[in-house]
Specification:
With 375 residues, the protein is α/β, with parallel strands linked by helices. It has 12 helices and 15 strands. It has a single domain, classed as 3-Layer(aba) Sandwich (UDP-N-acetylmuramoyl-L-alanine:D-glutamate ligase).
Length: 375
């Protein structure tokens, strides 16, 4: 059953305000990608040098491309903004905006940091071991297409981390952070090798309280079924040492379900809830989270919570919306929230971001919860 009553939003807002000073007592260690994102619109008809009509849907864009088969065509892209990108930097930036003390390690420019990451470096402890990648993010009203140039991620290896960041420094953050986050497995070719090394070398000595570990695979369509199953086995292996959260959008959840032999009976919230239970049961981790466009759900111990989101039909920006949801959900967990409140914190974070193109503060979240957007 989907929930998002006024009472739940008020409870969440009050808990966030009560905990307003707490995030800076929490730490996060996040990695390992890094992209310079150009958010672009695709021109449909140009009226003059300054004015054009954009292609509004992916289907219309597909028609334009299909019509060029055997003929060729020219497609004009207009840059709307250039920003820091990659699942990791966006997640880290959003967590830091909440006041969490973030250490970020990834591909942000090497040997010098790319200027687009200077804002992140001003509010987090940032380290780079490789050149930054680049993405053209084509945004439409019904979704986005990400065209990435990601070869620098070939340098993100355990050997390079030890050589350019330091084994002891990595082990210190890995062994102490309240939240450890590894994201964009799909585009980091040696991520699974890194996880295997961590489970072999750094996990066995871990003692003390169990901390949170968050994973976002990103769209795994280009990776083989064998690669994906290996990654999922390794994610499950971390549950021995951490409380593991796997975050998925709808497309990713369907792909993971297929790899595990779990089908979603329908694309409804009930169907995705069934899928979440199946994935959770196969992986035996703490929590599986699925965040389609209009709602979000989480499964822990076989119980699924579903929260309606503040759907925005014409977002100012959509690239990074999922990463902001993940940041909000992780904030909830760090503050001790249950799944419904953590989900609500997640959808509010994402909802604020797509409407403003800015990461919210804790106060921004509370204000939005108390002034919930009309459909």
């Amino acid at each position: 059953m989907m929930t998002n009553a006024v009472e739940l939003r008020e409870q969440c807002a009050q808990k966030l305000l009560d905990a307003a000073g707490q995030p800076d007592g929490h730490t996060a260690f996040v990695g390992l990608d890094g992209f310079v994102d150009e958010i672009v619109h695709v021109v449909d008809q140009r009226e003059n040098a300054e004015t054009f009509q954009r292609i509004l849907s992916i289907a219309k864009f597909a028609e334009r491309i299909a019509a060029a088969a055997g003929k060729s065509t020219n497609i004009e892209l207009v840059n709307q903004r250039t920003k820091l990108g990659g699942n990791g930097p966006i997640l880290a930036n959003a967590l830091a905006r909440f006041g969490i003390r973030v250490t970020y390690l990834g591909a942000l420019g090497y040997p010098a940091l790319h200027p687009v990451f200077q804002e992140l470096a001003s509010q987090a402890d940032v380290h780079s071991i490789a050149e930054a990648c680049h993405t053209d993010a084509l945004e439409f009203d019904d979704g986005k297409l990400l065209f990435g140039k990601s070869s620098p991620l070939n340098q993100v290896t355990w050997a390079n981390i030890q050589a350019r960041f330091g084994r002891d420094r990595f082990a210190g953050h890995f062994g102490a952070a309240d939240l450890v986050g590894f994201v964009n497995w799909t585009m980091v070719p040696y991520m699974s090798d890194l996880w295997e090394a961590l489970q072999r070398e750094l996990c066995p000595p871990l003692t003390g309280r169990r901390r949170w570990m968050f994973f976002d695979l990103a769209d795994p369509a280009k990776r083989s079924a064998g690669d994906l199953r290996r990654a999922l086995d390794l994610i499950s292996g971390f549950q021995k040492y951490f409380e593991v959260i796997l975050g998925l959008n709808e497309r990713e959840a369907l792909a993971i379900g297929e790899a595990l032999g779990v089908a979603a009976p329908t694309s409804s919230a009930d169907g995705l809830a069934s899928l979440a239970r199946g994935i959770h049961g196969r992986l035996a981790i703490s929590t599986v989270v699925i965040h389609p466009v209009a709602c979000a759900l989480a499964c822990t111990c076989g119980t699924v919570s579903v929260v309606d989101g503040p759907f925005c039909p014409r977002p100012l920006i959509s690239t990074g919306a999922g990463d902001h949801f993940n940041a909000g959900f992780c904030l909830g967990k760090l503050l001790g929230f249950d799944n419904p409140l953590s989900l609500l914190t997640g959808v509010t974070t994402s909802g604020f971001y797509v409407r403003t193109a800015h990461s919210p503060s804790v106060a921004d979240l509370a204000a939005m919860l108390r002034n919930w957007p009309a459909r």
